[in-house]
């Protein structure tokens, strides 16, 4: 499996977030920092997730994706669009309840040519910072639906005990 990467571009307030390969929690701190800066942009309008080249996405990353949708909705923006052609990833998104907070499509016209200009780099961070971000991401997923509460209950309890 190809190592995960997250690339971003922005045009007139629309942010395209492209995930490639096996996207894991190693990018969670830098991805969360990007999320905070994205919402701080005065021209922010919406987000498009391009998952067409993603092979796998872990639950921490999914929790951060959910955070984007929830924060956007709180600021009265439309639900983000997720482009997914991989049946396994689409099934995972549906299982997590993402149909309620994202528009999941197989194709979309994205007018970005060439390489996406910015790649989110992995930050060096201490174990506590990563654990806190993993905990936040899973709490977000648990708040989406009852199935997620059951699925992540033990993991969240274990992480809370380590704090």
TrEMBL record:
One Pfam family, short name: STAS
Signal peptide start-end: none
SUPFAM superfamilies on file: SpoIIaa-like (SSF52091)
Gene3D superfamilies: STAS domain (3.30.750.24)
Domain STAS: 4-129
GO MF annotation terms: anti-sigma factor antagonist activity
Transmembrane segments: none
InterPro entries: STAS_dom, STAS_dom_sf, UCP029548_STAS-type
Domain of life: Bacteria
Entry protein name: Sulfate transporter/antisigma-factor antagonist STAS
The organism's taxonomic lineage, starting at the top: Bacteria, Pseudomonadati, Pseudomonadota, Gammaproteobacteria, Cellvibrionales
């Amino acid at each position: 499996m190809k190592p995960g990467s997250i690339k971003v571009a922005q045009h007139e307030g629309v942010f395209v977030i492209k995930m490639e390969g096996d996207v894991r929690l190693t990018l969670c701190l830098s991805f969360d920092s990007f999320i905070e800066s994205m919402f701080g942009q005065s021209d922010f309008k919406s987000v498009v997730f391009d998952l067409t080249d993603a092979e796998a996405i872990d639950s921490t990353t999914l929790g951060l994706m959910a955070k984007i949708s929830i924060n956007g909705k709180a600021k009265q923006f439309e639900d983000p669009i997720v482009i997914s052609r991989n049946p396994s990833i689409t099934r995972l998104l549906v299982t997590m309840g993402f149909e309620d907070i994202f528009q999941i499509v197989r194709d979309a016209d994205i007018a970005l040519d060439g390489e996406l200009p910015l790649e989110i780099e992995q930050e060096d961070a201490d174990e506590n910072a990563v654990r806190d971000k993993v905990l936040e991401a899973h709490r977000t997923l648990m708040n989406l639906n009852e199935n997620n509460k059951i699925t992540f209950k033990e993991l969240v309890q274990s992480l809370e005990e380590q704090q």
